[in-house]
């Protein structure tokens, strides 16, 4: 697809051109990773996410509906994803609420006030590169009352290994892929969505 000129999206010393299929890049507006379409200044090697290039100077967000957010350029922390903002971000001056432009476009399930643990879990899954399913901790005996331990009926000998349940493995794989896709969608990482299925 051929590049097209951009009309008055953001202030930059050279004209920006909309370009598809550039691969991975770091957005010079919000300083987060992007993939594919960019608004580019080839003279400066300057790239912007499509949304960062066209985001309005103020907006109302479902994440902070009681005040208008103002777009500014500074270094703060995003109250949605907890990552540092090194460039463009929206801010509510009365509350000190800060958010990346792309984070304002996330689905309403992620909320800065209640779902931080879920965002952190997804971030940890992505960083580990593997899914670790949380389950019950199995000990040799259960504690009934303080100081009193009930012994189990049967103890497996070392070396005995149960054959994994195929249904449980499929469920684990689906949960892992779901977590990777959710995280990739939250961060605007198109490549992450695609790689979750590879």
In short:
With 198 residues, the chain is α+β, with helices and mostly antiparallel strands. It has three domains: 4-53, Wheat Germ Agglutinin (Isolectin 2), domain 1; 56-105, no CATH class; 115-133 and 166-198, no CATH class.
Write up this protein:
The protein has helices at residues 50-54, 116-128, 166-187, 190-195, and strands at 4-5, 17-19, 24-26, 33-35, 38-41, 46-48, 58-61, 64-73, 76-77, 84-85, 88-92, 97-99, 142-145, 148-150. The protein has 198 residues and is α+β, with helices and mostly antiparallel strands. The chain has three domains: 4-53, Wheat Germ Agglutinin (Isolectin 2), domain 1 (2-Layer Sandwich); 56-105, no CATH class; 115-133 and 166-198, no CATH class. The strands form five sheets. Strands 1-2-5-6 form a four-stranded antiparallel β-sheet. Strands 7-8-11-12 form a four-stranded antiparallel β-sheet, with no helix packed on it. A two-stranded antiparallel ribbon has the order 3-4. Helix 2 (116-128) packs across helix 3. It is flat and about 75 Å long.
